[in-house]
Fold Helix-turn-helix transcriptional regulator.
Amino acid sequence: MAQRTSPTERQKRLGAELHKMRVAAGVSAEAVASLLGVDRSKISNMERGLRAISPERLRSWACHCACPDGAYVDALAEMAESSSPGWWERYRGVLPGKLLDISELEAHAVRLKTAHTVHIPGLLQTVDHARTIFEVAVPALPQRELEARLVHRLERQQVLVKEGAPDYHGIVHEAALRMQFGGRAVARAQLEHLLNMSELSHVTLNVLPVSGGAFPGAGQTLVYAEGPVPQLDTAQTDSTHGPEFLYAEAQLSKYRAQLEWMERLSLGPDESRAFIHEIARQL
């Protein structure tokens, strides 16, 4: 298989899991290379996501490393399975690769949990709300990229309405609900859209009111994507420099605790819908 020049986050994650498995077992890269019948350099490239590994070779790797977790190995083998490119690949070379990695993360998640303080979650934004956000980017986005980001975001949102959509749990701070991005009419339409989405059986929204006080991660945007097994969970955070993908167990534990803390301070689903409705009525 040819070497990749720019592996996706999912490809890099698979490589990182292979490396973690091998190191935990105390097995040398040379030993794995001998087992698979490849050069030592190819093992390094596999562990960096630069080279693909077949499901069969992956299972041999796991067996040689004495990995006893069958569900974990099955999940890794599924990641290694060759498949047709996802819809987001149409945007390769048009949008930053990290944005496409978010699409891939959401598409493979078993469950999605998000926490937003000043923004409406991207999967729940109206096109007018999203356009307003993209129009104030610094530096300004070229018109072609702005329009591509809008279309890409709308395609991302299909993950919540497709057949077999993952469960989605969003925590939205009151501050985000009161932001009048695009003016009163756009803000009102955005709140009505939130109310409509919250009626879906697999979508849960909780509002964290300002009266809830302090909470960890205030001001941070967080997406927590649960994988088919807990070891493959991923936390994705945003910054002015772009999205970051985190999956060290200490990091995942921190963000799970953060979400649990915020949920304890939040209103229940019915109270949250009433709260959103009242803010919309005031506009």
Q: What stands out?
A: Residues 9-80 form a domain with the 434 Repressor (Amino-terminal Domain) fold (CATH 1.10.260.40).
